[in-house]
């Protein structure tokens, strides 16, 4: 297909998404010249050494190729004033699809990762219930389970974009506190029904077994909806950094209310106002009033390639790709702009458009060597449209750095360098 046949659908080189499957987007394949052809027109290629001898034996637990060791989470430096606190960010710029491998799923801890023996761990459901219940791990494994694909995002993800000046960051460093996985567990409503909820109960209060005793309050009607007690992630037991042996999982909501290492659920008339829902995880507005319990994560997308701190090495056609998600529904549309939001084109969404899950989008783009500003804009199934950074900061202010879901702008200069900018 010649460049003349490509349908341009927006300014600065964006190409109709229908051309994705017909384009050799990288342009990096080597054409076999006649000098490589033998007399019988077969390719005269040397057999590599790994094709000449048996390889390694099967293993008890799989590992990745040694050639992909550069694909790592990005962890912050330890803080002696906050022992065990911190986060590690997923390498969004290196991933594809919409499921994050367990080993690369982002982490956030308030007092480190406890080493819990499941045989000694207990989950207690008490408070305003007919009969308090105590479960051990083996008890819970006997219950029927459900599996759902959901995203999980820290409420502080992308928070640096509230700042007055754009940080020199990558998709990983700016937005890497989001991941997608298949979570398997017991609907929380099953366990609450078994305990018998008293009519005056309005909230559940969940507490983790880490040294921080991380606790959050959740409205009872929300807890009885799609909340689960998650025991497995992507088919294997939830890893220690994700809450082994069990965690609460509240789909579509800020990650900290999906309390890890869950050990207690207490039903009450009012929220408990834990430390982490008063001094933290509130949205302070310009009038200095703070909103509590702003759980759902906003409609959001980010281009992961090309993205910050990358470099375009040649002129030609590229695949612009990224992820989109919403805490209030599924992703129905993603638009991409190459001119800072003046014109837009629809991207192809090539993953399942599931409720509260990551969606992968793609669109071809021809870079001719000029300046460009790449942006993406998501719309969810409820009609919520991702706002610009300017409108979000105008609405919320920038005292708080939680729940940023504005449009990310990546500038490409004539040298091919990609950087975070405000546009």
CATH topology of the domain at 122-169 and 178-291: Sulfite Oxidase, Chain A, domain 2
Question: What is the first-to-last residue Cα distance?
Answer: 34 Å
- Classified in CATH, the superfamily of the domain at 122-169 and 178-291 is Oxidoreductase, molybdopterin-binding domain
Largest sheet: 5 strands, mixed
**Proportion of helical residues:** under 10%
Strand order of the largest sheet: 7-6-15-10-11
Structural class from helices and strands? mainly beta
Name the shape in a single word.
globular
Task: Name the CATH architecture of the domain at 122-169 and 178-291.
Answer: Alpha-Beta Complex
Strand content: 25-35%
How many β-strand runs?
26
Determine the number of helices (DSSP H or I, runs of at least 4 residues): 5
> Rg, please?
24 Å
**CATH class placement of the domain at 122-169 and 178-291:** Alpha Beta
> What is the typical, i.e. mean, pLDDT?
93
Question: Spans of 5+ residues with little confidence (pLDDT < 50)?
Answer: 26-40
């Amino acid at each position: 297909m010649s460049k003349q046949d490509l349908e341009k659908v927006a300014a600065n080189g964006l190409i109709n998404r229908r051309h994705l499957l017909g384009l050799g987007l990288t342009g990096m394949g080597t054409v076999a010249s006649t000098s490589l052809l033998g007399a019988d027109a077969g390719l005269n290629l040397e057999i590599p050494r790994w094709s000449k001898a048996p390889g390694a034996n099967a293993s008890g637990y799989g590992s990745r190729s040694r050639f992909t060791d550069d694909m790592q989470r990005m962890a912050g430096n330890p803080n002696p004033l906050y022992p065990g606190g911190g986060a590690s960010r997923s390498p969004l710029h290196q991933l594809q699809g919409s499921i994050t491998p367990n080993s690369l799923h982002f982490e956030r801890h308030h007092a480190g990762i406890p080493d819990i023996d499941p045989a000694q761990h207990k989950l207690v459901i008490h408070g305003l219930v007919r009969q308090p219940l105590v479960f051990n791990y083996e008890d819970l494994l006997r219950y029927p389970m459900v599996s759902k694909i959901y995203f999980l995002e820290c409420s502080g993800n992308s928070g640096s974009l509230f700042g007055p000046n754009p940080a020199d960051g990558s998709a990983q460093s700016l937005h890497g506190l989001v991941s997608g996985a298949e979570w398997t567990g017991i609907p929380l409503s099953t366990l609450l029904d078994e305990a018998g909820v008293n009519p005056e109960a309005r909230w559940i209060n969940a507490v983790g077994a880490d040294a921080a005793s991380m606790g959050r309050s959740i409205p009872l009607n929300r807890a009885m909806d799609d909340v689960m007690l998650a025991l497995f992630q992507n088919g294997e037991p939830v890893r220690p950094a994700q809450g082994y042996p069990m965690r609460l999982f509240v789909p579509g909501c800020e990650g900290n209310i999906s309390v890890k290492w869950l050990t207690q659920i207490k039903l009450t008339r009012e929220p408990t106002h834990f430390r982490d829902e008063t001094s933290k995880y509130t949205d302070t507005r310009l009038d200095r009033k703070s909103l509590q319990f702003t759980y759902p994560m906003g409609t959001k997308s980010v281009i992961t390639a090309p993205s910050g701190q990358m470099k375009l090495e040649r002129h030609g056609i590229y695949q612009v790709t990224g992820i989109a998600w919403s805490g209030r529904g599924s992703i129905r549309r993603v638009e991409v702009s190459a001119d800072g939001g003046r014109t837009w084109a629809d991207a192809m969404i090539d993953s399942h458009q599931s409720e509260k899950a990551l969606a992968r989008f793609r669109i071809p783009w021809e870079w001719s060597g000029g300046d460009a500003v790449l942006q993406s804009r998501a719309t969810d199934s409820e009609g919520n449209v991702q706002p610009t950074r300017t409108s979000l900061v105008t609405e919320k202010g920038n005292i708080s750095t939680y729940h940023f879901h504005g449009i990310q702008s990546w500038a490409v200069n004539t040298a091919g360098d990609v950087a975070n900018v405000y546009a």
